Amino acid sequence: MKKILVTGGAGYIGSHTVVELHQAGYQPIIVDDFSNSQESVLAGLESILGMAVPTHRIDCADEAALRGVFAAEGDIAGVIHFAAYKAVGESVQKPLAYFRNNVGSLLTLLAVMPEFGVENLVFSSSCTVYGIPDALPVTEATPTKPASSPYGRTKQMCEDIVHDVSAAPNNTLRTILLRYFNPIGAHESARIGELPLGVPNNLVPFITQTAAGIREKLTINGNDYDTVDGTNVRDYIHVVDLAKAHITAVQRLLDRKASETVETFNVGTGQGNSVLEVVHAFEQASGQKLNYSIGPRRPGDVPAIYADATKAAQVLGFKTETSLVDSLASAWKWQQTL
């Protein structure tokens, strides 16, 4: 059973990927400092998998601690690197924390991996690397423009670092960069899902918390964008679909099928939905009427972005399976179990 190290494995996307790795016959190993995740996730994973997942509680940017994990685990076949802060709005408020954590953890990982002969990396990137694109949908060949937030800039920098390391002489690293769009929803068991600490930065947990009465109302950040109804447009992908893309990417690396040392794929549905469309789809999925109002725009927000998912379908054989309404229904089921 091949070991796959999952940094940030107790986080939202990480935990769902741990489940899919296990079900695909891999042994996931979690590395997480729980600064942005909760201990209860481990119990949720254990109840789904029927076993505890080996977990190392360290900061991924701590080189000595990370080296200790690689030494303790022995033969690691590959790494999926999620460990990063991920809130666009927060990154505008705390840019230094984002650079230190997001860029620092990758630098540490890239320093340690070759010491232990680990050559395969799946990197958690983001559609924010495209900045404000000139045309939609974005393909992998769409030029990356200046990021509209420090978060987006960290992802651009990390991609650049991976390319530079891969171009160095004697490099053995092989990387797949997965540019995510907007993950939503929860595992069908409702034992793991999105667990924001404090006030949610993402739309869907704010919707579900409002419907559950935890929040008084949802404030929609701006309705004067040049979009179908004036609200931001995003590509919302079910988190389990996104997790499965990582399994496909890991398998491609292990099978040595990658055509280049660094390959890049958009992971989205290929369809854009506005914030208001998501609100109405949630009302349809849950039978709840949502209390919302329109507020000012939020710094760092791109008006609209959604994926051209053709390359992932043709090269990885990956396509999303879950509709927006079903994704939101799973998020509501998760909220009700909390």
Automatic annotation (TrEMBL):
Protein's name according to its UniProt entry: UDP-glucose 4-epimerase
GO-annotated molecular function: UDP-glucose 4-epimerase activity
UniProt keyword annotation of Phosphoprotein present: no
Keyword Transport: no
Reaction(s) catalysed (UniProt annotation): UDP-alpha-D-glucose = UDP-alpha-D-galactose
Pathway note: Carbohydrate metabolism; galactose metabolism
Quaternary structure (record): Homodimer.
Family: Belongs to the NAD(P)-dependent epimerase/dehydratase family.
Originating species: Hymenobacter montanus
